[in-house]
Every structure is written in C-alpha cells, then in structure tokens.
C-alpha cells in the first residue's frame, strides 16, 4: 500500500485528477473570486452530464477527444457531479503534492455511499491520520510475515481451479485478490465468512459506477441493499470477536481497527473494511493480469523469473527445509520484484483519481503566458522552419514537429 503512494506521486504523468467543484463552495466565495472563469468544456445532459461518454468506452478516447478540443484542463459532468478534469503532470503535482491542502479526497456520490462515508478515502486531518496508522499497523512486516503460507494456499487453490479451463485472467485474479484481502482483514477466521461476503460484495461492486438513483430496480438500489447486508454481516463478525474477547490474539486489520484506544464505532469499522477490500482488490488483480501478459510477451524475462523462483525451491530441497514459502523466501525474489515494479510503472493501473476543491482554486492563471507574450512581442520576431500547416496528435493536437521556429531580436 505504501508503494502505491509512491506510485501515485511518481506516476503523475498518467493521472487524471477530477476536481469536484461543489457549487455551494463556489457560492460561498466573495463575488470577485466566484466570478473566476471555469475552464472550457461541456457539462453534457442535465444531471447525466457526460457519464456515458466516459464510462461506455475506453476512457482514453474520451480524454483524447476532450484534450484535442479544450486542452489539458476542461470541465465536464460525471456521475451527477460537475467537475474539472486535469491531465498534465504539472497539474497532477499541483493537486496531489504542492497544493494538496486545497483538495479533499473524494469520490462520486455512488461510490461514497456504497463504501460508506467514514471510509479513509473521504477524509483529511486527524481522523484520516488515525485510520492510516491503523491500516499501516496491520501491514507491517511483523504483522504479515506469518500469513505467507496462507497466501500461498490461496494462490495454489486458485491456480489449480484454473487448470484445464479457459479463464478470464482478470476475473480470476479478482477472486484471488479478494480472498487475500479477506485473509488480511479477518485472519484465519475469513473462511467462515468468505462466501457471504463474496456474494454481497459482488453485487455491491456492480453499482460502484452507477448513477446514485435509489429506486427499486436500479443497479444502485440493488447495490445499496447488498451494502446493508454487508454491514449486518460485519456487525455480526465484530460482535462475535468482541464476545470471544480474542482481539489480542489477532494481528489482522480488524484487530487493528477494534483495538484502537480511542475506539472506532462499528459503522466506522465496516466502512473501512469495505474500503480496504475496494482498494486492494481490482488494483492488485489488474497488476497481476498485466504481469501475466508482459511475461508471456517477454520469454527472456519469464525465464529469468522462473529461474529465480526455481532456485528458491532448490535451496529448500538442498537444506531439507519444508517446501512451504515463508517470509525469508519472499526476500529472495529481486528479479520478480522488479517485474512487479516495472509493471506498475508501465501499466499505470489507476488512470484517474478524485479530489474536491475545499476552496476556489486558481490554477495556472494566465499570468505566465502574459509575461512571455509581453517579451516575445516587444523584443522578438520569428519565422517558422519547415512545413507550416501539418498537425500531429500525441494525443494532444500539436503543430507538426512542435512548430520549429527561429527567433530574431526585433530591431525596429
Ligand atoms: C498494486 C496495487 C495497488 C495500487 C496500484 C494502489 C494504488 C493506490 C493509489 C493511487 C491510492 C491513492 C488514491 C488517491 O489518493 O486518490 C491508494 C490509496 C489507498 N490504498 Fe491502494 N493500491 C494498491 C493496493 C492496495 C492494497 C493491497 C491495499 C490494502 C490495504 C490498499 C489500500 C489503500 C488505502 C487504505 C488507500 C487510502 C490511503 C489514504 O487515504 O491515506 N491499496 N492506492
């Protein structure tokens, strides 16, 4: 998880940040600031906005067509919310790093209601810090080193179940990642709840990108029902663990949440358990799917990884050690770790994330352009070198070859 934060910072090139501009915030601002112009773009249909254009096709097509038309910052309307999309490394750094305090983590309304308002993703400040500490505590080497053999069992079971079948790698990886997530949340108790949690979670996730319309028959409604059932199952698990007074003997995430001195409520625990399943599952499954693809396309790398893994088995055989993988073995996999890291870099599995502006933000005011144009026009003249009419897309529309020009001091 920690790595993902570095990923988040380092992969700003691939990030599209959605900044939700809440109307009430804009209205509360002094009138001269509220009059600041919004970037160009279109808000689409009333309420529905441009949700279908974004979600019904490869998002790159949506982004590329918007960028061609409006540039790398444009306004739109997604999942019932007016927002601004930003798609340059500089803008991502501005939102996620240099001015992070001006932007509150957020998600579209449907996701927020399904995960639960008290999940870590929607908070800043003390509550966020506390949750972050509790999550990290459950993923320290000390806490996870003993579950390596259990993860191995889940992996072996998954792979065996694929044998002789045509499988959808991503779907299978999702099941694998889900089972591992449950293991890290509930420890060995997870098998007792796996099927019930799975059934409800799979209905819930279908509604993550739905319009938040809670009417019978809608995807959102079905998902919200599954969400309520998930809360009930989680409440039961928490109460069983409390009654057994066994918290001390667990080192899983639930124990970390339940053991907090200041105390999380059952609802806070439930929202964050579901939040972690959400955070851990599709991301991990996606990376694994890309790894399978890249290894298949690069036999030399596949051979090197296989060789590295075989030498671990050979070492165990030679020393008479059991074949079960342990924590120390996972430290002998530098090549495999590099494949994972390179896949994270190349595949860029999270292509956008969301933030809500906590106050009106002026990004890249035209100041720097004005200054440049002042000097360009007053001190220089220029001539274009080579073809003058061509356009190139990369995917941004640019003059051919970036418009090579020659600049001359303006002598008149
Ligand atoms: C390789 C797979 C993963 C990737 C690529 C990934 C990526 C990310 C990114 C980019 C964020 C920041 C989102 C934002 O700020 O808008 C994030 C947050 C988070 N991730 Fe992951 N993640 C992965 C796996 C996991 C796993 C396995 C867990 C399980 C604990 C997890 C738990 C979290 C949590 C709790 C947050 C919120 C942290 C906070 O708000 O401080 N992630 N992840």
Description:
There is one protein chain. With 412 residues, this protein is an alpha+beta fold. The chain folds into two domains: 38-103, no CATH class; 120-409, Cytochrome p450 (Orthogonal Bundle). Helices cover 57% and strands 10% of the residues. The protein has helices spanning 2-10, 23-28, 31-34, 51-55, 59-70, 89-98, 109-115, 125-137, 141-144, 148-162, 169-186, 190-206, 219-244, 253-258, 266-297, 299-319, 327-330, 334-347, 367-379, and strands at 16-20, 73-78, 81-86, 103-105, 352-357, 380-384, 391-393, 397-399, 405-409. A hairpin with a 2-residue loop joins strand 2 and strand 3 (81-86). The model is unreliable at 1-32 and 392-398 (pLDDT under 50). Protoporphyrin IX containing FE is lined by residues 1, 4, 7-8, 105, 120-121, 132, 135, 139, 276, 279-280, 283-284, 287, 349-350, 353.
